[in-house]
Known about the structure:
By secondary structure, the chain is mainly β. 11% of the residues lie in helices and 37% in strands.
Amino acid sequence: MLGNHESIAAPRGVLPPRFRAADGGEAGSVRVPLDGTWRFRLFAEAETGVSPADPGEDWDAIQVPGHWQLAGAPDSWPYGKPVYTNMLYPIPLDPPHVPSANPTGEYRRHFAVPRGWLGSGRVVLRFEGVDSWCEIAVNGTVLAQSHGSRLPTEVDVTDAVAHGVNLLAVRVTQWSAMTYVEDQDQWWLSGIYRPVTLEHHPEGGIGHVEVLADYDHTSGHGTLQVAVEGYDGRPHPDAVVRIAELGLETPAGDVVTAAVEPWSAEVPRLYDVEVRSSAQTVVLRIGFRSVSTAGGVLTVNGSAIKLYGVNRHEFEPGRGRAVTREAMLADVVLMKQHNINAVRTSHYPPHPHFLDLCDEYGLYVIDEGDMETHGFVFEDWVGNPVNDPAWRDVLVDRVRRMVRRDAHHPGVIMWSLGNEADRGCNVEPMFAAVRELDPTRPVHYEADKTYEFSDVYSRMYPDLTELQEMARRVDGPQPADGPLPTAEIYARRMTLPFLLCEYAHAMGNGPGGLTEYVDVLDAHERAAGGFIWEWIDQGIATRDVDGNLFYGYGGDFGEELHDGSFVADGLLFPDRTPSPGLVEAAAVYAPVSIRQRADDVLTVRNRYAFRTLEHVALRWELVADGETVAEGTTDLAPLAPGQAAELRAAEVVGETRLPAETAVWWVLSAYWRPEARPDWAAPEHLLGRGQVQLQSGSRPQDATGTITVLEDGWRVGPLRLDGAGRLVSVGGTQVSLARVDAWRAPTENDQRKTFTSISDQKAWDIPGLHRLHESVRSVSRDGDAVVVTARAAGAGRTLGFGVRYTFRAVDEKTADVTVDITPQGLWPGTLARIGWLLALEQPDAASVDIAWTGQGPGESYADSSRAARIGRWRHTVEQWQTPYLNPQENGARRGVTEATFSLDAGPLTLAGTESTVGGRTTDGVTLTARPWSDQALATARHPNELEADGLLWLHVDAAVHGLGTAALGPAPTPGTGLWPTPATVQLRITAG
Ligand code: IPT
């Protein structure tokens, strides 16, 4: 009956798939964990020559669950190293064959069968996940061969075990025929990486439970039908179903109705359902809810919902996909804390405990099948298993196992057949199998562009124009992505709700443009929302030659083929520290939207689908010069879902007078009322925030101090210029470089060509912005000012900037500087920044303190600025650095009106700042400070390679280019990109 790891066959010797009750959900000791230390030996080929009867007494010890490649991480790599490829297969494309050199792990452990299990019912081994193919033997007899790395396997071992000690032997190959259908964008990691349990299936026990818990929003009634199977797969003859809380008790299979509270991600109301037979009791936590796509709108409980989602791979930097419960809980809590309400389990069913948490905390889930064949794209999909009948049973088996395992979870609102596997003859039977097992949930499949086998029209990474068209159902007669086979297919597609299963590629510094995307999704009923790609950077903890820890990506482990840092594209850093991108996502996804409507008006909108804003407290602040000078709470009518109210500053702040002559902002923040606040939310958890500037700061008095002519230059307040007009010192601090700048260390988004133009990096390379030189043309005295004119251009190039510096003294310690910059010539594209660059001599620049006023506290960019708010902040230069796994531009602070740096020579203050770009003047500048140059930042491959160079590098910019998501998606939109245009930076410098 058995084959081998190259067989294209569904698993053999295994039990039919069944549901998974949460831990503790099955009464009595029916599960014994077999996790812990096992014996292990790694072989070079699948035919290891080791008998399954060999107990491996003198082999190595290894921890199960775990991947063998990470057994010693981050310090040693005793069993090979991880390999990262995105679409590419790391083996020749030759299905079902794999290389003979095929790392294969032999696992051994002993186990005892608990007293009382033998002689009544069955004894079963359960594996939650083994990557990629395994052969399972007990006491020397091979019982099963299985695969489906992210799916469970159960084997009946009753007839093979005895009282006393039994030997379990598992052979696991890294490569198998199944590798061809598991080509997800992630690390190739092998082994028994999810838990293993020994279980008892008592005679007459509960084998499988199917829950139908529907909710009728018109009547407020729930309908419950719980179908129960015995372990033999047949309807259970005498199972009883009870919900104590509702006073319900009924034979299994019967339909009962009762007035209930519905489940939603907003209010995740669960009920305990007890399923009892004479032999066994199982408790499930269920939720009453309905899902529908009728009318082309995705609804839950009758209301249109928006999925403010993320794509989640399972990942821990030292453990790969062998994730702990703590990490699963951390993910769910972090999602809730960042206003995320949905998760696509990209691209496979997760550890089942994750779904228990989604039910409990309230997250909508698209549960995705374990199938991706992306690497066939390089062969124009020739040979794709999805279009080969030989693979049909394998692929149908996979979706059946997912649905059977997970269908009782209220959080799961949609099934997905898999990812990036194109179309073909096996899609229909997969779709039909899901539909047959569960007619209640919509099915998602993005990769077949006819969407014949999908209940939603799902897309990845379209640009805004296309998104707008799709959201409005006005795609032209033929869609942009190629003609569809028939008019009927096209017409049907138009009737489906629309969603973005991936968008806003969060690689490196980004995503930019989230607000623009979500505004379109919010504005159109057809749009069911979207899922940011992706949740967490999959950087693997490793060490450099000096023993410093860093997070490795593709290419750091000696792979012959790899896809570099494409694996580091999450909203969380590998250690689960939120990146600025996640902080921004929290602001954009906030359930209470607070946006500027007019100069002094904010609109508050309830974005919940079900809740009023009764649980929300609104707090206002008046912020003058960064300092909160008045604050209070304001009452708001409990807006119904979708409703909005306009608030005018004067009405909210009442009698409070605006302080004179300073910049004044009105900030409005929404928090949980204490009595309504759930456990996962901290008191300061923001449900929404908005701000408007009510008053501009007044310009500082004109500088009237005198300048001193020296033998070899000029003294202007604290500034020293040499005879050639170069700034050589500020107070007691030497200036190593001062010139205009227009470049940045390219982000990964900057590096990619967008769909329509050259990459930004290329647009900056052509004029040589990364090697600007400034040549002074004139130095002169103009009344009380020293005026220096210059031209800056890239070595080897002609394009450049006309520059005019005006220096004026205020007094001994203070001077005003105006830098006027005029791009000259015809430019190929954008600029990275436009402003003044200073490199100041300052040992240990990282620990310099910065006290500043502006939009903070974190970094922000023109198209990623919703999370920033006006305030007065304090950081070190080090804290201004964001350690993207692949170093690149980071750390910009916008709207900075004042900043004081604690230099060795005394405090240095930049104040009275103002920027003019394209004729428009605003308060403040964009400020960036680093202990290394942009060149060093661009050259480093990992943050641990960056070394302070004894200088404090300061960018004082009039503007900085937005971020966009061109690594996979559009570049910054015209409103947030920086195109060559005259700019002025104005600042007052005080030293001492
Ligand atoms: C898309 C994949 O679905 C996802 O797994 C990931 O690889 C992402 O790209 C890139 O980070 S597919 C792409 C061709 C649109």
